[in-house]
Specification:
Strand order of the largest sheet: 6-5-4-3-2-1-10-11-12
Shape: globular
Largest sheet: 9 strands, mixed
Structural class: alpha/beta
CATH class: Alpha Beta
Strand content: 15-25%
Number of domains: 1
Bound molecules: iron/sulfur cluster
Order of helices and strands: EHHEHEHEHHEHEEEEEEHHHEEHHEHH
Helix content: 10-25%
CATH architecture: Alpha-Beta Barrel
Mean pLDDT: 92
């Protein structure tokens, strides 16, 4: 039975589909590990194919068909390494039966011929007219040099360039290329002259802001003070209460909808909600009816399931109580542009989540840059009480 179509609000900025959280690499700074302690491969082990840790391609088709097509709003495939989904072949089973454009965040784990073959002739789904490449390949120096015997960057550029032979546009100009390489600007990652000589004139290459803490220093610019470093930098001994809502549709490998990246990663770092999924499947995915009891007592829980006929985008519109403020993932609270360049053009900062009523202890005020702007996000009665 076809599921009801979702009404996408104009404010929806991003659809992120985590096809799998399994990955062939184990980058020390991977944000899938909320503490960025290099524990990624232990937290998200690659399981045998028999373990049910994802929707089937047919289930994804049914789920994605609920999302109206919008030329300007692709479904961004991410993970983990999304190309590993369903033994590498899953994506090609989904793409022919859905209308959407897709963006792909990948580490190019598969060789170009296998990559292209697995797409099942659906290259055009990654060829939306956009000012940047739809296939965004991340370069991870340590892990790729380990995997590709000290020729990590050469191998990656060669793999991107080879996509030319498989129906993709590859150009050094990012607006004319379907593929580009991005490097997290972690303090230990540097662009060397040798790298420049390898990529120039062949594929687009750009740095990507590193978000998080390294050796006690915070990197990135965040709207909400201490949202990502409260605990990791020892600013306060415990996370804070607040209310939070998302501006994004974040889907985990089993089709659960999550309110933020921290909740999604944390929910999966202990094996994922497999038991809850099995119980929900037995109830025909009726999350609105059964979700609260299935996730009772969990410190993090999803907000819906895409296969629940009752799920609607209005479910994302609610501010929900959260007691984990201070462990937020940087991509949720960093200042950025929305799809309409709000920050660059109008000075209006966009964040993936909106947070209010943060119970910020007043003794931390002195450490907050731009306190005047930040106060609007704090719970007023806490401010009043602590200032008496
Ligand atoms: S490739 Fe990406 S998902 Fe995989 S470990 Fe590295 S940062 Fe994490
Ligand atoms: S406050 Fe942070 S951890 Fe809590 S829901 Fe919002 S983004 Fe997630």
């Amino acid at each position: 039975m076809a599921l009801p179509l979702l009404q996408l609000p104009g404010t929806l900025n991003y659809i992120g589909l985590f096809l799998t959280l399994e990955c062939n690499l184990n980058c020390s700074y991977c944000i899938n590990d909320p503490e960025q302690m290099g524990r990624r491969s232990a937290l998200f082990p690659i399981e045998s194919k028999s373990a049910r840790k994802s929707l089937t391609p047919a289930e994804w088709v049914a789920a994605l068909q609920r999302i109206p097509f919008r030329q300007d709003l692709p479904v961004t495939l991410q993970g983990g390494e999304p190309m590993l989904y369903w033994g590498g072949k899953g994506l090609g089973l989904i793409l022919p039966d859905v209308p959407h454009y897709f963006d792909l965040l990948t580490n190019f784990a598969l060789k170009p011929d296998v990559f292209a073959r697995n797409l099942n002739g659906q290259q055009a789904k990654f060829q939306r007219s956009a000012p940047y490449p739809s296939i965004r390949v991340s370069y991870h120096a340590d892990e790729m040099n380990r995997a590709w015997k000290d020729r990590g960057f050469e191998e990656l550029v060669e793999r991107c360039e080879a996509l030319k032979d498989y129906g993709f546009r590859v150009s050094p100009n990012k607006a004319e290329s379907d593929v580009g390489i991005y490097m997290v600007e972690h303090p230990k990652n540097a662009v060397t002259p040798e790298m420049k000589a390898i990529y120039e004139g062949r594929v687009p290459f750009e740095g990507k802001e590193f978000l998080g803490v390294d050796e006690g220093e915070l990197y990135g610019h965040y709207l909400y003070p201490f949202s990502t470093d409260l605990i990791s930098r020892g600013i306060h001994p415990a996370t804070l209460n607040c209310e939070c809502r998302t501006t994004e549709l974040l889907l985990d490998p089993m089709g659960f909808v999550w309110g933020c990246h921290y909740f999604l990663y944390e929910g999966w770092s202990h094996g994922g909600p497999q038991k809850e999924f099995a119980a929900l499947e037995a109830k025909k995915f009726r999350f609105a009816e059964h979700g609260a009891s299935l996730f009772a007592g969990h410190s993090v829980a999803p907000v819906g399931h895409l296969l629940d006929p009752e799920f609607s985008m209005a479910d994302l519109d609610l501010y929900r109580p959260c007691s984990h403020y201070g462990r937020c993932i940087g991509c949720d609270t960093k200042i950025k542009n929305d799809r309409f360049q709000s920050y660059y053009d109008r000075g209006v900062p966009h964040t993936s989540v909106n947070i209010r009523n943060i119970e910020m202890p007043s003794h931390l005020y002195g450490k907050i840059d731009n306190l005047e702007r930040a106060r609007q996000f704090f719970k007023p009665d806490v401010v009043d009480r602590e200032n008496q």
